Here is the input.
Amino acid sequence: MDRAKKERVVEELGQIFDSSGIVVVAHYTGLTVAEMQDLRRRAREAGAGIRVAKNRLAKIALEGRSQEGLGQFLTGMTLLAYSEDPVAAAKVVDSYMKDNPKLEVVGGAMGEEILDAAGVKSVAALPSREELIAQIAGMIGAPASNLAAAIGAPASNIAGILETIEEKAAA
Here is the structure.
């Protein structure tokens, strides 16, 4: 790889570190090409990305950034999983690890916070942004539907009483 390509890779990695809500560092020793493609596909479907880069170039990209502590995890065959959603990349890697034990999370960064493997697992257990929005929308809508049911209940009770009276009168 010539110098210009290396500079481009360092710049791309820097953009990943700056723009991602979470970056997960994992070792992928022993993964086949097909398994790596499967991981990339799952990440794409979840709105995350997977990047394999030379550790030295990644460390250069980390210099001066708030996630500089990630450099301690960049040893061996490492990949970076990243996403804007602070949970998506962690969820993808965690679920893939359940299917394939060759992938091993070693750490990550969420904003300026450096996470160990247990921290990444904890983040993966959190609900995603979409799940949180759905829960909030449900909570906002629940009082309105309860109010509508409460308002409609007396009318349906009166209708039931009138129907009973009508049936008795017809009999």
Notes: The longest strand covers residues 104-110. The first helix runs from residue 3 to 19. The chain has two domains: 3-126, 127-171.
